[in-house]
Design goal:
This protein is about 70% helix and about 5% strand. The chain contains 17 helices and four strands. It is globular and about 60 Å long. Residues about 5-10 have low confidence and may be disordered. Strand 3 and strand 4 (about 335-340) form a beta hairpin.
């Protein structure tokens, strides 16, 4: 007696997987919208990703009301809410109500509301890894665009040639692609060093090596320095044996990239050598930066406790800057016409906060970052001592990303389309520091 074959329908695995990460989809959407080309000529305007980040906060608030659960632990509420103290004081001292409200909203978005929402939406280390891979995927996309710009001469203008890789961010935000690629690189290195699955380690390591190329052709000295320091610390925190092995692979890959694949052009070599000349023979961009740093310090010396008020640096700049400051930086290329971009910030986050918010603001905001770093590193130590090693990849990715950001803030500040990604990154780090590390401790105590 014959039997007709049984028709087996494919299981709806993709749908089930998407449903399982549904709370993360608003966060991933914020990251995905940054792939849209930045509108040229708009200085500091809101982007679609900024708009969705607002919806992300609203979505998180609605979920909390519906689920009737405690939003944050006491420690998390204090750490994430600490910047509000300095911001409130600086908003009152702003030159106008519009400047105070606008500046307060932007700082709350980047350092309080969006990070807190990300902390609340990430449920466990599985969700954390999904976001880590989202960072890596976004970095690979922007990096591919950047390398294509460099290879075809369609990037932003650099020394008279359209070679600088800027991704979809355009010449007005030359740090945007470098920041995105560095974020992805930090996550990839963390996943490669700490993952328990060999396949995941191999894929993550391959992604990290691929991301070295777009980072190189971004010509961003600040991103290079921050990346080198953060990766070195990640390797050291992962253990000396792994550090030596991975360090040798990275060094060999760098030799291949710079020498064998032709990435080591004269311009790139000159840019690398200029890192050691910023004090002896600075170029105009470095001179402008030194001048604005001095102006920011001078503003703070006149208003040491509360600063000149939110969004007050541009208004007070000319009264404190020397004649060495140029009228602005020239930007063109990557599909944009030539324009003079005004220098409206000191390109140093700590000095920007110090000049506009004073010591109160710097201690509040810096104290929040320091608490995240201490809690994150403490959790990393716990993960290393764990017999299973579960969570080490999360710890290395989070700590590496935060260390990179804190070092990069010595050469950059908030501003531009990529700023909203910084907010997501702080939430990413805060989850590990304030939730994930404590969950790991509770699990080991059982």
């Amino acid at each position: 007696m014959s039997h007709s074959p049984v028709l087996t329908l494919p299981r709806r695995v993709p749908f089930t997987y998407v449903a399982s990460i549904a709370p993360l989809l608003p966060v991933i959407l914020v990251i995905a919208l940054l792939t849209l080309p930045a509108a040229q000529g708009a200085d500091g305007g809101a982007t679609p990703a900024d708009a969705v980040s607002g919806l992300l906060v609203l979505y998180c608030a609605i979920r909390l009301v519906r689920e009737r659960r405690r939003p944050l632990s006491r420690t998390a509420a204090v750490v994430l809410g600490l910047p509000v103290v300095g911001l409130a004081v600086a908003a009152v001292g702003a030159s106008s109500p519009a400047a105070g409200i606008g500046g307060l909203g932007r700082y709350l978005q980047i350092f309080v509301l969006v990070p807190a929402s990300v902390v609340l939406l990430v449920r466990d280390r599985r969700d954390f890894r999904v976001l880590a891979w989202a960072f890596v995927a976004f970095a690979l996309f922007q990096g591919a665009v950047g390398v294509h710009q460099y290879a075809t001469g369609t990037g932003a203008s650099y020394q008279g040639e359209d070679l600088r890789a800027v991704g979809t961010f355009g010449p007005a935000d030359v740090m945007g692609m470098a920041t995105v690629v560095a974020f992805g690189l930090m996550c990839a290195v963390g996943l490669a060093l700490g993952a328990t699955a060999a396949r995941q380690r191999a894929v993550a390591a391959g992604c990290a090596l691929v991301l070295l190329a777009p980072l190189a052709v971004s010509f961003s000295r600040g991103a290079w320095i921050a990346t080198a320091a953060a990766v070195t610390l990640q390797l050291a925190l992962a253990g000396m044996r792994r550090a030596l092995t991975v360090g040798a692979v990275v060094a060999a890959s760098a030799v291949v990239l710079v020498g064998g694949l032709g990435i080591g052009t004269a311009m790139l070599q000159e840019r690398i050598s200029s890192i050691g000349q910023v004090a002896d023979a600075p170029d105009q961009s470095v001179t402008d930066r030194y001048t604005m740093w001095a102006a920011a310090t001078d503003m703070w010396s006149e208003h040491p406790l509360i600063g000149v008020g939110l969004k007050g640096f541009p208004e007070h700049r000319d009264g404190h800057a020397s004649l060495a400051l140029s009228s602005g930086s020239d930007t063109e290329g990557a599909g944009a016409a030539f324009r003079k971009q005004p220098l409206l910030s000191p390109h140093n986050m700590y000095l920007l906060v110090l000049s506009e918010q004073g010591l109160i603001g710097l201690l509040a905001l810096g104290g929040s970052w320091l608490a995240l770093l201490v809690c994150g590193l403490r959790g990393l130590v716990r993960a290393r001592r764990s017999s299973s090693g579960d969570g080490l990849d999360c710890a290395l990715a989070a700590c590496g990303l935060l260390i990179w950001q804190l070092i990069d803030f010595l050469y950059a500040d908030i501003g531009g389309p990529a700023t909203v990604l910084t907010a997501v990154a702080f939430g990413f780090v805060a989850w590990w520091a304030l939730v994930g590390a404590d969950d790991l401790q509770k699990a080991s105590a059982r």
